[in-house]
């Protein structure tokens, strides 16, 4: 089965609900998953480190109501057999913020026996 963009919506929903329990549905769940945050230097490697990173942002199992909103603009998807590369601009707005934070994001998905999972994410920040 080919890559289906709904899973990108699932990742956006994960951010907007801060639902830590969705990590295993979205990412590889081993030491191979890697993540470059726009908020922290260096590579985050492995699912436990990725969970801790999101916990430090306030993510909790089951999610929570929170006022921040994340969305993607200009999504481009390229599929190569069992790999899909998603490039977009992430936008993140906190209440009272005049303009949202923005930056490039690349999500590398791989098709596993459990379906498509993020193997690597890379976030950057645009300066205003």
Corresponding CATH architecture: Roll
- Helix-residue proportion: 10-25%
CATH C-level class is Alpha Beta
**Which stretches are low in confidence, meaning pLDDT under 50 for 5 or more residues running?**
none
> Which percent band covers the strand fraction?
35-45%
The CATH topology is given as Nuclear Transport Factor 2, Chain: A
Query: How do the strands line up in the largest sheet?
Result: 2-1-6-5-4-3
> What is the residue-mean pLDDT, rounded to a whole number?
95
Global shape: globular
Q: Determine the structural class based on helices, strands and strand pairing.
A: alpha+beta
Order of helices and strands: HHEEHEEEE
- How many alpha or pi helices? 3
Q: What is the domain total for the residues?
A: 1
Taking the sheet with the most strands, its summary is:
6 strands, mixed
Per DSSP E runs of 2 or more residues, the count of β-strands stands at: 6
CA-based gyration radius: 14 Å
Distance between the termini: 41 Å
General description of the model:
The protein is α+β, with helices and mostly antiparallel strands and 128 residues long. The protein has one domain: Nuclear Transport Factor 2, Chain: A (Roll), CATH 3.10.450. Helix content is 20%, strand content 39%. The chain is built from 3 helices and 6 strands. It has helices at residues 6-17, 23-26, 47-56, and strands at residues 34-36, 43-45, 69-80, 83-93, 101-112, 115-123. The protein has a 6-stranded mixed sheet with strand order 2-1-6-5-4-3, with helices on one face. A hairpin with a 6-residue loop joins strand 1 and strand 2. It is globular and about 45 Å long. The N and C termini lie far apart (41 Å). The model has no long low-confidence stretch (mean pLDDT 95).
């Amino acid at each position: 089965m080919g890559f289906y963009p709904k899973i990108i919506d699932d990742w956006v929903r994960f951010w907007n609900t801060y639902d830590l329990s969705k990590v295993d549905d979205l990412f590889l769940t081993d030491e191979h998953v890697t993540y470059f945050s726009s908020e922290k230097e260096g590579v985050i490697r492995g699912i436990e480190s990725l969970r801790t990173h999101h916990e430090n942002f306030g993510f909790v199992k089951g999610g929570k109501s929170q006022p921040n909103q994340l969305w993607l603009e200009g999504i481009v998807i390229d599929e190569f057999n069992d790999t899909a590369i998603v490039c977009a601009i992430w936008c993140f707005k906190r209440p009272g913020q005049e303009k949202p934070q923005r930056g490039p994001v690349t999500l590398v998905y791989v098709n596993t026996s459990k379906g498509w999972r993020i193997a690597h994410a890379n976030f950057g920040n645009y300066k205003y």
